[in-house]
Design goal:
Helix content: over 70%
Structural class: mainly alpha
CATH topology: Ferritin
Strand content: under 5%
Order of helices and strands: HHHHHH
CATH superfamily: Ferritin, core subunit, four-helix bundle
CATH class: Mainly Alpha
Amino acid sequence: MKTQHLTATLLAALALAAGHGAQAQTAPPAAPMPAEAKLDSADRDFLENAAQAGNMEIAGSKLALEKARDPDVKAYAQKIIEDHEKAGQQLATLAQSKGYEAPKEPSLVQQAKLKALGLRDNSFDKAYIDEIGVSAHKDAVELFGKASNDVKDPDVKQFAIQTLPVLQQHLDAAQALAARANAAKK
């Protein structure tokens, strides 16, 4: 008898829950915020990727201030932090004005790369210059170069155009540090 009562109670509860679920599914979807409509999805993707890249370069450079042994590498890292924090603030303000909140952290893949970089000891300086200085900046230069031509929003396009030369300078400086380190090994 108790089993039948318990089964009936469970079935009634499931029926009520299913009824509420059906109501939730038939409710009209929330209208998108007008601000969200200001940005094309490709423009939002650029802002997201740019924010994550900048956050990774800042985090990697802060790590370099702690772990790097070469004073030139530390000076480079400090410059990266200063420039990318400034660009990150501009990006966040721009994104917010367009109804989009830019990420405040590197992507999960980038976080894993930073974790691996942090595990290095003797080879840290070279790994930082190769991974953050050269590789990440090559990717950023490519991202911003493409955005300079392809994004639709004129303010986002202007941000990409203005930021690109600074990223190119960072890449050039990293390549010079890498070349110097490679020449010292010979």
